[in-house]
Amino acid sequence: MAKLKIYTTDFCSWCDRAKRILESRGIEYEELNIHGNPAMRDEIEALTGRRDVPQIFIDDQHIGDDDDLAELAQTGNLEKMLQLEGEGSMSTTEKNNGDAIEERNVIIIGGGTAGFAAGVYTSRAMLEPLLITGDALGGQLSLTLDLENYPGFFGTEAVDFIQGLQQQAERFGTEVRFDMVTEVDFNRHPFYVKTYEKEYLAKSVIICTGASPRMLEVPGEEEFGGRGVSYCATCDGFFFQNQRLIVVGGGDAALEEGIFLTKFASEVFVVHRRDQLRASQIMQERAFKNDKIKFIWNTVVEEIQGDGEKVNGALLRNVDTDEKQVFPIDGVFIFVGHIPNTELFKGTIEFDDQDYIVVDKLQGTNIPGVFAAGDVHDHIFRQAITAGGAGAAAAISAEKFIAELENRSYPGQ
Ligand code: NDP
């Protein structure tokens, strides 16, 4: 049997995703955490040319990152490569065909703050909800370090908060599955939900799929992804010891991650397209006080350049003067906001002009019985606390919907 090895670091949601894929299939692996281990970090770079984690090997063959692993798992090739026999070697489609459709009261899609809040409320309503986590357990919080602005939690590590969310929901009876929804059909009722692993029918669905980091969409960004271009300081910062970095963006994420990167980098240049930051005052003050952080105002990144192997510069343009310069740099960290994870629901549910799901005051979508909560519909507040509140509200609405469907009473009736 071949051996699987995975290089990870602390606070890396993509590493957690890869481990979950393996654990859900009962595959044993050796984890090599590179945190604080420069030799191991250099080893990854030497073996793969990459400056990000996770990186996964089967015996000595590099198979790539969590996305590559997910693809191998879906096609059934992962077990073949590991020379495992039996059920595990079936592709997901084969598995789906073999399993009966499972019927549930409520399916919550997404394991961020909104999803787990919905889990707490629907499980306390005795609806025995199923929560399908999707890619990143904890949603946007999984990309952050400390939680400072959730009332009642001051300076709590985000990773502990996420664990608490899950434990609390599970304690009341939410079943959490580390799986990914691939298809929905809301034109029939009970609603149809299909995942990599299984098919379901549900009386009500609560969509909490959140949002994903927006890309800059400039030349070089894709080419140098993982080779100096990154969207996660906590995952990849360690690769940039004593190096010069650019952080793109002017919001809280750019400043928070920029400040974190000063632990490793010699200098961090925040490149912002305006001369005023969008970030909160407290974050601005912290960034202005940090000696390693410099600001390049009214400037956009037009191209990310490299030597074929890794990033070595960025083409910057001043939007006022149109002046261009090639800025020598070792890495570019991009934090320019998010796009909602709504692709799966396109053509089924009503979106606004930015592809966020439109909800009413009860968190209801245009389809009765389908609710949405969190960053998937909210492009105004986008806070963990508001996502949690919306998740709770969506759960109460789902409870009411099911009670009406079954001609039962519900709280407040
Ligand atoms: P934001 O939408 O707040 O900020 C995005 C930034 O990227 C803006 O400064 C925007 O510029 C810039 N931008 C957008 N598109 C481009 C582009 N194509 N090229 C260059 N720049 C671009 O997103 P964040 O991810 O920073 O924050 C999202 C939410 O999460 C916010 O509500 C924030 O408060 C919260 N958050 C809170 C944290 C905390 O409190 N610790 C930490 C991180 C996030 P412009 O300003 O010109 O629009």
What does this structure look like?
This protein has 413 residues and is of the alpha/beta class. The chain folds into three domains: 4-95, Glutaredoxin; 101-212 and 339-405, FAD/NAD(P)-binding domain; 229-334, FAD/NAD(P)-binding domain (3-Layer(bba) Sandwich). Helices cover 28% and strands 25% of the residues. The chain has helices at residues 13-24, 38-48, 66-75, 77-81, 92-98, 113-124, 158-171, 233-236, 252-261, 281-289, 384-405, and strands spanning 4-8, 30-33, 55-58, 61-64, 102-109, 130-132, 146-147, 156-157, 175-177, 181-185, 191-195, 199-207, 211-213, 229-230, 244-248, 267-271, 293-296, 299-306, 311-318, 324-328, 331-334, 338-340, 370-372. A hairpin with a 5-residue loop joins strand 19 (311-318) and strand 20 (324-328). Helix 1 packs parallel to helix 3 (66-75) and helix 6 runs parallel beside helix 11 (384-405). It is globular, with a radius of gyration of 22 Å. 45% of the residues are buried. The mean pLDDT is 91. Bound molecules: NADPH dihydro-nicotinamide-adenine-dinucleotide phosphate (NDP). Residues 144, 148-149, 216, 248-254, 256, 273-274, 278, 300, 335-338, 382-383 line the site of NADPH dihydro-nicotinamide-adenine-dinucleotide phosphate (NDP). Residues 144, 148-149, 216, 248-254, 256, 273-274, 278, 300, 335-338, 382-383 line the site of NADPH dihydro-nicotinamide-adenine-dinucleotide phosphate.
